[in-house]
Amino acid sequence: MAREFSKVAVVGLGTMGAGIVEVFARNAIDVVAIEVDEAAVDKGRGVLQHSTDRAVSRGKLTAEDQAALHARVHFTSSMDDVADCQLVIEAVPEHLHLKKEIFAKLDAVVGPDAILATNTSSLSVTEIAVATSNPKRVVGMHFFNPAPVLQFVEVIRTVVTEDEVFEDVKALAQRLGKQPVVVGDKAGFIANALLFGYLNHAVAMFESKYASREDIDAAMKLGCGYPMGPLALMDLIGLDTAYEILDTMYKQGRDRLHAPSPILKQMVSAGLKGRKSGRGFYTYAEPGSSQLVDDALTPAAAAGEHEATRTVRTVGVVGSGTMATGIIEVFAKAGYDVTYVTRSQPKVDAVTAAVQKSLEKAVQRGKLTQEARDEALGHLTGSTSLDDLATVDLVVEAVVEDLAVKRALFENLDEICKPGAILATTTSSLPVVECAAATTRPDDVVGMHFFNPAQVMKLVEVVHTVSTAPDVVATVQQVCADLGKHAVTCGDRSGFIVNALLFPYLNDAVKMLEANYATADSIDTAMKTGCGLPMGPFELLDVVGLDVSLAIQRELYLEFRERGFAPAPLLEHLVTAGYLGRKSGRGFRTYA
Ligand SMILES: NC(=O)c1ccc[n+]([C@@H]2O[C@H](COP(=O)([O-])OP(=O)(O)OC[C@H]3O[C@@H](n4cnc5c(N)ncnc54)[C@H](O)[C@@H]3O)[C@@H](O)[C@H]2O)c1
Fold first, then answer.
1. Domain named 3-hydroxyacyl-CoA dehydrogenase NAD binding: which ranges (predicted)?
2. Catalytic (active site) residue 154
3. Please, what's the b/e burial string for 509-531 (b: 16 or more CB within 10 A of its CB; e: otherwise)?
């Protein structure tokens, strides 16, 4: 029988602590809520009031329940008030010396059976435990931000934690409606160990001006279905906390990719800690607010002058695969005349049939009117000759991902297309500049990286090379807007924004599995329920295909020469064995 908890304490009422207090109070458990001084206590009380007021105004909590919830919380600045609590959770800033000091104090105040838990994200629970007289009763109980919303809790068991203790804490997490996963004491545990490499990489992209903060965030939201972009998430986590987590992870693993990006330290020193201070990567209406306000980096304010654009009415699409078919449909639906070129008449017919079928499905689902379908069909012209692209304003190629094939195609387009035509490649991994260099007009060449399925996915990465003309970029951005797509703009580097941020994280998950730190199920659960991602890394790898993922990871490794980007040996072995994911019936999991 798991222990019944009726009274607990939370020490530190900041970003996490205040939310943890609410979680307990909502579940009919009395809470002693402790802060350093009266002012901080008031602030913590204010956070709980604000949060429950919102729940009441949204009809998720009645006024009586709100009153009962508040009555369960005793706010104080005296540590002595924890004396009769069965469990204390510490959520003070991420500094080892501070946590050790607090645990030593708590140890002296609580009863002999009380459990002491830390909400640390990265510090060694073992080191914190040994600051007490009885390390066996110390565990990690790592909630996720915002604690009342996210359903995941990592329970960290050190080599000395008593079985009963972590079993009781696990059962308590379940009672709170959370999904607990028990893991060993390693910096970052599951979720942060995988998340923070990705976040730090996004910060480095921003710092190097590879892409704007808005574009980095939009790319991950629209390209991967993440609930928030990485920089907005850093602001939510708090840049000071994020810095400490990265620093601890770096010191433990010496992985360069965890060394905090230099700009983080500068921002923290300048007091730009994210939402809690009113400013981080973005600017907020006031400290603690989630409401964004414009600042000097906001695109509308920053873009004083508007770049001239070229006129695009007619479009050529080269290719006959999934991407080409989707792109043809997207242009035709937006009213562009589309000439699509494939290598044989049967392929032209197949593409025409595929577009017709897809439009028909849209009509049946009520997403498209019959008139709109007919109009789109009226914009289509199939051809087997590239010469038919002589007069188009824009060509988008989506042929096989093979540089020799693409270069030969660009040489041909260079000879055929009219002066001023924009030549775009939808490559996801090859250098756009290689396509540009195959022509005599590299300034007209640009990347237009659509996502699959192109009809559905809103994101297009617009990739400029060192030679792309600014008006070409501006024109393609404008065309994307006409297509109802969201364009993000970045330089010509392997992986662009999305794949460069996504695949190293997936690769890290494979390495974690390989190291036997956690199972594929636990890792998938952590990332889905702890970070709100639409799929866990292993689910996603199996969908994308292990061979495709390995190829992308190899490209990234070759381009950046980062040791941490080296493909996980387990990924290589699975591909060698022919376990490619869903398409082959087996990958990280086996399919019927
Ligand atoms: N921010 C996140 O997204 C997140 C998520 C999970 C876990 N964590 C972990 O939770 C812990 C707290 O992080 P946070 O982001 O809430 O930090 P925070 O800075 O928002 O809040 C920390 C609070 O602790 C208080 N405090 C400091 N010393 C204290 C003391 N001696 N007694 C009582 N209160 C004291 C501070 O006044 C402050 O209000 C850290 O260990 C962090 O790694 C953070």
1. 7-185, 314-492
2. yes
3. bbbbbeeebbebebbbbbbbbbb
Query: Of 28, 45, 73, 18, which Cα lies nearest the Cα of 172?
Result: 28
- What is the number of residues in the chain? 592
What is d(CA 581, CA 432) in angstroms, rounded to the nearest whole number?
A: 29
∠ CA 201-207-213, rounded to 5°: 80
Residue linked to tokens 């941020």: 501
Which residue, chain included where needed, has tokens 């939310």?
A: 19
Six token digits for residue 336: 């562009």
Q: How far is CA 209 from CA 203, 348, 489, 504, in A?
A: 10, 42, 11, 20
Q: E strands, 91-198, where? A: 115-118, 138-143, 152-156, 179-183
Give the SS3 label for residue 122: coil
- Predicted confidence (pLDDT) per residue in 309-333, tens digit: 999 999 999 999 999 999 999 999 9
Radius of gyration (C-alpha) of the chain in whole angstroms: 27
Cα gap 38→169, rounded to integer Å: 30
Alpha helices in 254-315 (DSSP H): 262-269, 299-302
Ligand 1, from 13, 92, 273, 290: best to mutate by most atoms within 8 Å of Cβ? 92
Q: Backbone dihedral region of 278: left (phi > 0), alpha (psi from -120 to 50 degrees) or beta?
A: left
- Type of residue numbered 22: E
pLDDT tens per residue across span 527-565? 999 999 999 999 999 999 999 999 999 999 999 999 999
pLDDT, tens digit, 9 for 90 and up, residues 16-60: 999 999 999 999 999 999 999 999 999 999 999 999 999 999 999
Specify the 3-state DSSP secondary structure of 425: strand
Please, are residues 41 and 75 in contact by the beta-carbon 8 Å criterion? yes
Please give the Cα distance from 553 to 548 (Å, whole number).
Answer: 9
544, 557 in Cβ contact below 8 A?
no
Is 121 one of the annotated active-site residues of the chain? yes
- How many angstroms separate the CA atoms of 81 and 3, rounded? 21
Query: Ligand 1 centroid to 116 CA: how many Å?
Result: 16
